[in-house]
Amino acid sequence: MTAPRIALISAVFPVMVLSVIDAVKLQDRMVKRVGPSEAQGASGEGSMFTKAVPKDPQQLVSVARDRLPLLSRLYSTCTSTIENAGHRFGEALPAGDKQALTPFLATL
Question: Would 87 be classed as within a structural domain?
Fold first, then answer.
């Protein structure tokens, strides 16, 4: 299974589980993530996954792909195009501090 497929499945699975076991909790989670005005629609999408996927599990990726903007908004913690670009920690430090930073970090 490819990394994008795993990412899609891991984003959709919690919604599918909650739509079956606790619709109220799912609705509360959606309110926190997208606000009250969009929560009902987001919850409905989760319920749709739960109904569609058991009929044909192979379609999970295509169903999720069609709703990728919503899933990204609900579950992505990184909005950068390149997620593994590193960080900018210490970039603004003076040259001497930058030189001292590397040996210090090596001790951690």
Answer: no
